[in-house]
Amino acid sequence: MKKLSLIVISVISTFFLFAQTPGTLDPDFGDAGIVLLDHNYNSQNNYIQGSAIQDDGKLVFGGWSYGIDASGYNFIRLLPDGTPDETFGTNGVVVINPGSSCEIWDVCIQEDDKIVGIGPAEDSTFSNVKMAVIRINTDGIPDDGFGINGIVEIDIEPDTNIFACSLTIQDDGKILAFGRMSSLPDFQSIICRLNQDGSMDHTFGDNGLVFFDIVDKIEHLSCIEIQDEKIIVGGNSFDEDWNVYITICRFLMDGTFDAEFGNGGIVLKDIPAQIDELSDNYFGNVCLAPDGKIIYAGFADGYLDEDFAVFRFLEDGNIDNSFGNNGMSVTDIEGKAFAQAVIVQNDGKIIAGGYRMSSLGNDADFTLVRYLENGDPDSLFGWDGTGIVTHNLSTTTPPYEDKINCISLQPDGKIIAAGYAYTDPPTFIDFAVARYNGDIGSVIEQAHTADLEYFLHPNPFTHETTLEFTLDSRSDVAIEVYDNRGIRVGTIANQSFDQGEHQLRWDGSRLTAGVYIVKMVIGDRVYMAKVVKTW
Q1: How far is it between the farthest Cα atoms of the chain?
Q2: I need a surface site. Which of 82, 196, 245, 399 has the fewest CB within 10 A?
Q3: Rounded distance between C-alpha atoms, residue 346 and residue 444, angstroms
């Protein structure tokens, strides 16, 4: 029997998975780290706007296609290696076309693995835009237990347009949907809460709807999140001169503003940025850190061109002065650079994604920047010590555009960036996905170093290995096994155990030789260990 020190195991497993430099393309994904998917064979322009990851490692995206056919709600699913999932729609793409122009701007996955998307939908006369929430089953078929044929449409009145752009799912399964209303000279915002069957939740706001307006500002908010049983909505707003303001609102779970956040529930932060006019081509974005801090990513006007800009706010809405320069970190990237997506690793590092354009302005590249907790670019991210990674995904010559619209993190810390890229001939645009190497533990929770008696023997093993552990009291225990891609490949236990010693035998004979991570969750504590499978 071999007794293993848990903290040493964690270090060894981390070392093993750091073999690839964080920020470099993952050669085990698609074609050298890149997937370009042409839906309907060069007759459509294809765009990805939202992404999510299933528990089985499959990658789910939402978007739309324009071309010879009317746009439809597009859902895309890839296998963990980037291959289109042939069990999902046609060549991994599900198109739901209600007969009008419609798009998916965000996707989430429910606990039952059903997929929920949100986006704008024009009516049959193409004169009125509604908010649409769509739910499909795991096989891509619309869920007939949700709304009408899997679709719920929210329409306020005939002359009001609603541009739906973000959703999130509460722990109780209710769906929060967010959008922007009307048109110039003003945008208002709308939050809708749906029950699990798609009906309006009448305990929220006014019969399931909350309308709000930022005084003297043109609103262009873009995302919704849940922060400790409170609702965060964030993005940009603009004054009459098109100066940019970071705008974050917080609501209680009944839909009323949270008076303890900012000024009556609203935080406005002017930043050194200005746009020429309101455009759907630009969105700042907001996400939450594991500690509840609020992260904004967008751009700031630099010396010559626009630069990536990231801001961090405390949980109560105040600027976090421990980050960057008074809460702001600006990264000078050659050409014009705009961040449109942001996510935070469990270790507090921030990844912002978007695009940079050359000085000629006739091309754009996938662009990522990773920041340390203090706001400095992470010199260990990428290959040149700057913390900046750019890639041209297009298969054509300029002019072209490769833009990141969304980012997700796998359990192994690998980074999924998705959007679109130009292909030959240059008028065609493909769904584009890139996977970058990351840090083990950046999503899978960091291992505790408490003195837990935890044994694996034999290790290495050929067919079976035995886990032994001792509990101080009766506890709920979940034990899972992950491969070196962060994909869950087995579940050893998920039940309550009494106080005392326990032995569990795990049959890993069906797995290929390699290194695997055993993750044990006891209550709210997480432990990880490395186990080696040999032939």
Answers
A1: 74
A2: 399
A3: 8
Q: Which residue has the tokens 């270790």?
A: 347
Q: How far apart are the first and last CA of the chain?
A: 20
Amino acid at 481: V
Structure tokens at 80: 């963990």
Low-confidence ranges of the chain (pLDDT < 50): 1-19, 41-42, 280, 441-450
Torsion of CA 376, 358, 30, 18, to 10 degrees: -20
Question: Which segments of 332-460 does DSSP mark as H helices, in order?
Answer: none
Q: Is-cis flag, bond preceding 80, omega within 30?
A: no
Express each pLDDT in 472-524 by its tens digit: 899 999 998 877 556 678 899 999 999 999 999 999 998 888 778 888 888 76
Q: How many residues does the chain have?
A: 535
CA-wise closest residue to 480 among 488, 468, 472: 488
Residue for token pair 């649409």: 132
3-state class of 1 per DSSP?
coil
Q: Cβ–Cβ contacts within 10 Å for residue 200, how many?
A: 17
Three-class secondary structure assignment of 474-529: CEEEEEEEECCCCCEEEEEEEEEECCEEEEEEEECCCCCCEEEEEEEEECCEEEEE
Distance (Å) of CA 422 to CA 60, 101, 166, 430: 21, 22, 25, 6
d(CA 201, CA 206): 9
Tell me the C-alpha to C-alpha distance, in Å, between residue 24 and each of 20, 32, 341, 391, 415. Answer: 7, 10, 18, 10, 10
Angle at 299 between CA 293 and CA 303, to 5 degrees: 130
CA distance 233 to 221: 7
How much is the pLDDT for 426?
A: 52
CA 162 to chain centre: 23
Q: For residue 147, which amino acid is it?
A: G
Sheet holding 294-301, edge to edge: 285-288, 294-301, 306-313, 328-331
Specify the pLDDT at position 450. 47
Spatial distance between the Cα atoms of 92 and 45, rounded to a whole number of angstroms = 16
Tokens for 84, please give them: 């289109």
Torsion-angle region of residue 411: left (phi > 0), alpha (psi -120 to 50) or beta? alpha
Give ∠ CA 510-513-514 in degrees, rounded to 5. 120
Classify residue 139 as left (phi > 0), alpha (psi -120 to 50) or beta: alpha
Torsion sign, CA atoms 105, 110, 115, 121? negative
Q: Phi first, then psi: what are they for 16, rounded to 5°? A: -60, -40
Going by the DSSP 8-state scheme, the letter that residue 6 receives in this structure is H
In angstroms, the Cα distances linking 115 to 50, 93, 163, 517, 526 are 12, 13, 20, 28, 28
Contact yes or no for 119/130 (Cβ under 8 A) = no
